[in-house]
Design goal:
By secondary structure, this protein is of the alpha/beta class. The chain has 9 helices and 10 strands. The two termini are 13 Å apart.
Length: 292
C-alpha cells in the first residue's frame, strides 16, 4: 500500500503522523511524507525560499520520527508547488492508494492544510483521501481498538469501501458499524395524487433497500473476521446529518465512506454526502475511491 502524508508544522499535521504511526498497515506499505511550499509567496524573495525549504526539510525529519520508530518505510520531500494542485498530482504520479492530511494548518507561507486545501485535495485526488482530526479526550487509544463507521447505500462505491476496510489490518478489538439511512421519497408536484398508504409503501421500500445494503456490506467484513454491527436509521432527507450524528453518539474514530452514492456524480459535487461528512465530522474521515 502506498500512503502519501501531507505535512507542515501544525498540530493537525502532528495528528496525522500520530494516527498513522499508531495504526497497523499492510505488509510492505510505503509512506511518502511531503511538505508543499507555494513558490508564489517567494517570487520576490528567492533567498527566503531557500531558507524556508531548508527549515521545512529539518522539520520533516523530526516529523517522521514516530513513523520510523513504528518500523514504517518512509521517505520525505519538499516540493515547490501550490499544495491544492501538487498533492493530487504527485499522488497520481506515485500511484498512491491513500492521501492522508490534516483538517487545518497554519502559517502565511506554508498554507498547506487549510480547510480549502483539504477540500481541493478531496475533490481532485484520484485515490482515497483521509482527513485526520485530533482525537477527543473521550476516545480510546488505538491500542484498545478503533471504532470505524461505514455508511452504505448499496452502491458499488459503498461496497468497494466496505471491501477495502475488510482487506486491511486494524488494531485488535476494533469495532465496525455499518449505517444505512433510508431516504425519504421525493414526490414532486400535486399530481398524480399520492395517498397516505402509497407514501408509506414508498418509505417502506426505501427502508428495505437500506437493510439489504447493510447486509451486503456486512458480508465483506464478517468474512474477514471483523466485529460488525448494523444500524438502520429512521428515513430522512439529510443522510450526511444522520451519519454525523451517529458518529458522534458512538464516539467513532474513523468514518470510511464511498466517494459516490447511488445517484452517481451528484454525490461528489459541493454539498455531496461524502464531502459533507469529510468536511464536518468531528473524527477522521476517509473518502474511499477503492476499485476493490
Amino acid at each position: 500500500m502506498k500512503v502519501l502524508l501531507a505535512a507542515d508544522e501544525s498540530d493537525a499535521s502532528n495528528a496525522v503522523t500520530h494516527e498513522v504511526s499508531a495504526r497497523p498497515w499492510p505488509a510492505r506499505s510505503e509512506f511518502w511524507v511531503l511538505t508543499a511550499l507555494d513558490p508564489f509567496f517567494f517570487t520576490r524573495a528567492p533567498l527566503l525560499l531557500k531558507e524556508t525549504e531548508k527549515k521545512a526539510i529539518e522539520s520533516l525529519e523530526e516529523t517522521v520520527l514516530p513513523l520510523k520508530q513504528a518500523g514504517l518505510a518512509v521517505k520525505i520531500d519538499v516540493v515547490l508547488e501550490n499544495p491544492r494542485h501538487g498533492i493530487p498530482r504527485l499522488a497520481s504520479e506515485w500511484n498512491a492508494d491513500l492521501i492522508v492530511l490534516g483538517s487545518r494548518g497554519r502559517g502565511a507561507l506554508v498554507r498547506l492544510l487549510m480547510g480549502s486545501t483539504a477540500q481541493a485535495v478531496l475533490r481532485h485526488a484520484k485515490c482515497s483521501v483521509e482527513i485526520v482530526r485530533e482525537r477527543r479526550k473521550e476516545q480510546r487509544g488505538f491500542a484498545e481498538g478503533m471504532r470505524i463507521l461505514i455508511p452504505t447505500d448499496g452502491s458499488d462505491y459503498a461496497n468497494h469501501a466496505a471491501q477495502s476496510v475488510a482487506q486491511r489490518p486494524w488494531p485488535a478489538a476494533s469495532e465496525f458499524r455499518l449505517i444505512a439511512v433510508p431516504e425519504l421519497p421525493v414526490l414532486a408536484g400535486d399530481f398524480p395524487y399520492y395517498s397516505t398508504e402509497q407514501v408509506a409503501e414508498l418509505a417502506k421500500s426505501t427502508e428495505g433497500h437500506a437493510k439489504e445494503a447493510a447486509a451486503k456490506a456486512a458480508e465483506f467484513l464478517i468474512k474477514a473476521g471483523l466485529r460488525v454491527t448494523s444500524v438502520i436509521t429512521p428515513a430522512g432527507d439529510a443522510p450526511a446529518r444522520a451519519i454525523l450524528e451517529a458518529a458522534d453518539a458512538w464516539s467513532a474514530d474513523l468514518i470510511v465512506v464511498g466517494s459516490h452514492g447511488r445517484r452517481g456524480l451528484d454525490r461528489i459535487v459541493l454539498g455531496s454526502v461524502s464531502e459533507s461528512i469529510a468536511m464536518h465530522a468531528q473524527c477522521s474521515v476517509e473518502v474511499n475511491r477503492s476499485n476493490a
